[in-house]
Task: inverse folding
């Protein structure tokens, strides 16, 4: 048994049974299918080490990513309160989302759109700019600046709350109020985090501040992979300034990392949805001013226990982020021949 | 020369280098630098300081006595540093039902288990995906690529149903297992192992090495940078994770430090006494991340060279 395995291993997946079938063409398809199946099984058996190695990840992956996504899709066509058995109601959830959910249409969607447009592409472009600027520095200095820009992305949860709540605190001890009062820009302390006028802007600033994460490091890595000879070649071909260099050489050479970074930006934006809760301490922000789709899902899932409806919203969110990712792939996909 | 050595140590432990020394160093370096680079450094230093300001503030706040926290006008630098906040954090919890040390213990266990299992699972999967040929490989790869953008927050309900369905509520499994499903870790690992030359593996095979041998003796020693990177990413996610404590565990004794400090600092907007504990907590939650990153920064960028999605 062991012998035959190693033999099969060396010739890497040819069809040893293929010739044996030919001499008996009169036979019906059933044995042939059986033979195929058997061969498939034996190939799977031959590759058992591969599957064994993959097993821990694949098990966890199916339990906590694949099945939950399918479940969300299934639950989205039901009404389910977490206790009684889910009841099938077709696409009613989606219809309700589009036609009856006033909060969704009036606050959630515009908020999310605004937040995602600025934080997603904005943060992405910023991290490219900073990565590129840092790359222009001599090697010895790069690490310090990388650390300075990356550090904020490590301050999650409590650290983030502590920092920003005291900065935007509503009394005159708050740092921002103090500075603005000193300069005479405002006359009385502003309730930055409680005022619907400012909350969104603050959320965007804080998220941008902490957005130089893995994607930013990927860009730094990508910049190092660019072949420096290309720059000299480019200069001979008539590239005049650094901007042209970036556009014609740098970005095309590091497309793969740009794509990875873009995907990370999407994840980051999705995850940042709960920032309003960290800043205000409330699950629902004042006047829905910082209400994003993720808050909407949490609202229906953990405050109202309408799990079917919440799943419908999360399916919509997953679809939207999937489409955005497809778009990024289009944008950065390697051209044929590369 | 000894001077420059101490200088380097100074700057690497404290992200804000001594401005005077920095200036003299820059001046020396300026001789062979263009104006572009000088303006660039000035600009980036300004940006860097701006980004770091909240972090500096975080460090100082943790050591401020309570009266300084509410000083008017507010200050950034601490005047009389004290460990009182940390003392209060420990004492406060000692009076509670579940001691502080229990949460700390839980966090340490969860982080250690998760790091170990994520590294094992993702290296094994990454090795197979990079170097083996088998059925379903393209399917699995495309699933991983698709789920790179997956954020667990979007499907928290079905995940909760899965965890409780598998009977893992109130166990460490509920904290650890969801993290093993990390497509980013597997993807980075696969990309990194792609770089290991096939010839090396072929040679080992000719010498009669099995998959286990190749994996433990050839692959593992070569992928240290990727392991470091995955450790950083996973550590950050696990250490700050709240999902496990808020959704998957109801018993207070099974919750982690992140949950505990966030419950202490809840309603931070309105509580005065909470501020000092909160400041200590915040530093407690930030420091381990920073140390991890400082240790592995170079390695992380080295891994990112291969992070491209083709």
Result:
């Amino acid at each position: 048994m062991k012998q035959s395995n190693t033999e099969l291993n060396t010739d890497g997946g040819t069809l040893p049974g293929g010739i044996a079938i030919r001499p008996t063409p009169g036979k019906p398809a059933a044995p042939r299918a059986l033979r195929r199946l058997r061969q498939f099984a034996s190939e799977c058996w031959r590759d058992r080490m591969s599957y064994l190695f993959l097993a821990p990840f694949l098990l966890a992956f199916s339990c906590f990513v694949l099945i939950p996504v399918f479940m969300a899709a299934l639950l989205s066509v039901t009404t389910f309160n977490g206790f009684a058995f889910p009841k099938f109601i077709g696409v009613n959830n989606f219809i309700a989302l589009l036609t009856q959910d006033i909060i969704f249409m009036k606050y959630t969607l515009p908020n999310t759109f605004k937040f995602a447009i600025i934080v997603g592409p904005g943060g992405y472009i910023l991290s490219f700019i900073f990565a590129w600027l840092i790359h222009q520095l001599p090697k010895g200095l790069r690490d310090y600046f990388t650390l300075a820009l990356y550090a904020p992305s490590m301050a999650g949860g409590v650290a983030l709350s502590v920092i920003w709540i005291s900065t935007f605190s509503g009394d005159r001890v708050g740092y921002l109020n103090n500075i603005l009062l000193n300069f005479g820009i405002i006359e009385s302390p502003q309730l930055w985090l409680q005022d619907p006028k400012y909350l969104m802007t603050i959320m965007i600033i804080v998220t941008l501040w902490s957005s130089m994460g893995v994607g930013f490091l990927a860009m730094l890595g990508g910049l190092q992979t660019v072949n420096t000879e290309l720059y000299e070649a480019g200069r001979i071909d008539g590239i005049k300034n650094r901007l042209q260099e970036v556009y014609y050489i740098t970005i095309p050479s590091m497309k793969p990392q740009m794509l990875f970074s873009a995907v990370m930006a999407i994840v980051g934006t999705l995850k940042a949805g709960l920032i309003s809760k960290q800043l205000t301490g409330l699950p629902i922000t004042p006047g829905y001013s910082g209400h994003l789709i993720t808050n909407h899902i949490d609202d229906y899932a953990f405050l109202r226990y309408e799990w079917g409806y919440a799943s419908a919203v999360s399916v919509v969110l997953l679809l939207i982020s999937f489409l955005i990712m497809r778009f990024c792939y289009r944008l950065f996909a390697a051209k044929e021949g590369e | 020369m000894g001077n420059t050595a101490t200088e380097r140590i100074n700057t690497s432990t404290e992200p804000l280098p001594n401005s005077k020394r920095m200036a003299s160093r820059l001046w020396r370096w300026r001789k062979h630098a263009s104006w572009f680079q000088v303006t660039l450094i000035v600009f980036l230093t300004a940006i860097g300081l701006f980004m770091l300001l909240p972090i500096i503030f975080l460090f100082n706040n943790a050591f401020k006595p309570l009266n300084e926290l509410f000083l008017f006008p507010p200050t950034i630098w601490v005047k009389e540093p004290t460990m009182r906040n940390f003392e209060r954090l420990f004492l406060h919890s000692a009076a509670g039902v579940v001691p502080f040390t229990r949460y700390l213990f839980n966090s340490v266990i969860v982080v250690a288990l998760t790091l170990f299992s994520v590294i094992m699972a993702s290296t094994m999967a990454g090795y197979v995906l990079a170097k083996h040929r088998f059925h379903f490989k393209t399917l699995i790869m495309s699933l991983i690529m698709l789920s790179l953008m997956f954020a667990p927050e979007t499907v928290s309900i079905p995940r909760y149903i899965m965890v409780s369905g598998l009977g893992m509520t109130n166990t460490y499994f509920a904290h650890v297992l969801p993290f093993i499903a990390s497509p980013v870790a597997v993807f980075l690992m696969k990309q990194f192992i792609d770089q290991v030359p096939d010839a090396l593996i072929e040679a080992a095979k000719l010498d009669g090495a099995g998959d286990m041998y190749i994996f433990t003796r050839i692959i593992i020693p070569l992928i240290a940078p990727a392991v470091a990177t995955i450790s950083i990413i996973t550590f950050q996610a696990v250490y700050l994770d709240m999902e496990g404590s808020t959704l998957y565990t109801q018993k207070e004794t099974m919750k982690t430090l992140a949950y505990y400090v966030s419950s202490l600092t809840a309603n931070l907007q309105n509580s005065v006494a909470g501020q000092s504990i909160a400041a200590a907590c915040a530093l407690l939650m930030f420091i381990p991340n920073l140390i991890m990153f400082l240790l592995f920064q170079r390695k992380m960028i080295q891994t990112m060279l291969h992070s491209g999605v083709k």
